[in-house]
């Protein structure tokens, strides 16, 4: 029995698919199938059962997967050559909010034993991909109860009002009445920003005028020109470098909770737990600022 065959088994188990594993390992499907059959013959039992078009770990396959994971980890420690996709896996993280991707990309991950690859898409699409093992983790504010998924809290983002300092009373505060007199700048093609602005306006019970900006790069310019105010999430504060732009905190009742989801059957996959800890540490620090 070779370490190579165990690597093949591990990658098939990761994706529940010989086809996907062959793509990741750059090995033909026929070669991978033959290697899996050879390993099963050596062990004396089947490692997978077919469920429609998918492969699912058999009871014996589930039993030995943690052992295979440990063998691969130990092999890596003593520099036994492994496939790159196993020795330094790319962990695919689906994120429904592009602002969180931007924030994560600003911080270089010091752990060189894995890479994080961020994918932006709609929440339900990402969660479906997570269940099908097409991606490894999902960050979203969508609250879903699914027995196949494990959910944990990641960060709460509180909305802020960004505005020119000249709008503030004594440079510190502004009342809802005064805020209503100022135009609210809204990103034209950003549905998420429309929803966020609407939530704030309804909470404050005001009816302001709106200015629609077609380019996110123009927001700084409009704020500096005192054209109106702009609702942001707390994580986006660092994008506004002009010292004349000030930020007014809003009620925590308007906070948006984001969650980290993982597929429960992926608990034995290499570097999933390490990636989860890294992301939680990163966004916990950001949320505490």
From TrEMBL:
Name the species this protein comes from. Answer: Enterococcus hermanniensis
Question: What family classification does the UniProt entry report for this protein?
Answer: Belongs to the LysR transcriptional regulatory family.
Gene Ontology molecular-function annotations: DNA binding; DNA-binding transcription factor activity
| Chain ranges of the HTH lysR-type domain | 1-58
Keyword Cell membrane attached: no
Write out the entry's keywords from A to Z.
Answer: DNA-binding, Transcription, Transcription regulation
Source organism, top-level taxon = Bacteria
The answer to whether UniProt assigns keyword Nucleus to this entry is: no
Query: What is the name of this protein?
Result: HTH lysR-type domain-containing protein
Q: Which PANTHER family match?
A: HTH-TYPE TRANSCRIPTIONAL REGULATOR, TRANSCRIPTIONAL REGULATORY PROTEIN, LYSR FAMILY
């Amino acid at each position: 029995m070779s370490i190579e065959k165990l690597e093949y088994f591990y990658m098939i188990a990761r994706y529940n698919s010989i086809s996907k594993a062959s793509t990741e390992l750059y090995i033909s499907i026929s070669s991978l199938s033959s290697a899996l059959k050879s390993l099963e013959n050596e062990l004396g039992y089947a490692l997978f059962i077919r469920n429609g078009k998918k492969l699912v770990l058999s009871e014996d396959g589930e039993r030995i997967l943690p052992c295979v994971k440990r063998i691969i980890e130990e092999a890596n420690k003593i520099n036994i050559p492994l496939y790159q996709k196993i020795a330094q896996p790319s962990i695919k993280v689906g994120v429904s909010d592009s602002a969180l991707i931007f924030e994560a990309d600003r911080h270089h991950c010091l752990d060189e034993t894995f890479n994080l690859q961020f994918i932006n898409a709609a929440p339900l699409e990402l969660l479906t991909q997570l269940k099908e093992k097409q991606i490894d983790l999902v960050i979203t504010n969508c609250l879903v109860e699914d027995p196949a998924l494990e959910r944990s809290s990641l960060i709460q983002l509180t909305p802020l009002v960004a505005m020119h300092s000249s709008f503030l009373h004594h440079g510190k505060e502004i009342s809802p009445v005064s805020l209503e007199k100022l135009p609210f700048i809204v990103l034209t093609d950003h549905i998420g920003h429309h929803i966020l602005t609407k939530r704030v306006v309804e909470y404050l019970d005001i009816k302001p005028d709106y200015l629609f900006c077609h380019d996110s790069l123009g927001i700084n310019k409009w704020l500096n020109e005192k054209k109106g105010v702009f609702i942001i999430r707390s994580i986006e504060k660092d994008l506004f470098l002009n010292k004349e732009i000030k930020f007014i905190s809003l009620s925590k009742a308007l906070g948006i909770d984001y969650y980290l989801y993982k597929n429960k059957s992926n608990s034995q996959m290499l570097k999933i737990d390490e990636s989860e800890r890294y992301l939680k540490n990163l966004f916990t620090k950001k949320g505490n600022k």
